[in-house]
Design brief:
The protein is an all-beta fold. It has no helices and 11 strands. Strands 2, 4, 5, 6, 9, 10 and 11 form a 7-stranded mixed β-sheet that branches. The chain has a 4-stranded antiparallel β-sheet with strand order 1-3-8-7, with no helix packed on it.
Length: 119
């Protein structure tokens, strides 16, 4: 079992930066692939980024590639999402998720943190 708690959301202006954190409790954090997703009002949940448990390889959704960076600190059981050059369309609730080894779906989710970007 893994509990995930996001933090770092807030209200910023277009062009600003923000860093989200996701603290995980439970065992074997390093064994999970970690991801960030977001959901804007009236829209479906969107993949933002993930970082593979073993290799540390990262991947990004097309709308954030080049602006956002995902990283993890296994010693601190924390995954981060550095968001630069924020745009109003980045406004959403951002969720952290964990995927167990061998699973095709993310099986643990945080409660989310709101990011609002004003123009």
């Amino acid at each position: 079992q893994v509990q995930l708690v996001e933090s770092g959301g807030g209200l910023v202006q277009a062009g600003d930066s923000l860093r989200l954190s996701c603290a995980a409790s439970g065992r074997s954090f390093s064994s999970y692939t970690m991801g960030w997703f977001r959901q804007a009002p009236g829209k479906e949940r969107e993949f933002v980024a993930n970082i593979i448990r073993s290799s540390g390889l990262t991947s990004y959704g097309g709308s954030v590639k080049g602006r956002f960076t995902i990283s993890r600190d296994n010693a601190k059981n924390t995954v981060y999402l550095q968001m630069n050059s924020l745009k109003p369309e980045d406004t959403a609730v951002y969720y952290c998720a964990a995927r167990s080894s061998g699973m095709s779906q993310y099986d643990y989710w945080g409660q989310g943190t709101q990011v609002t970007v004003s123009s």
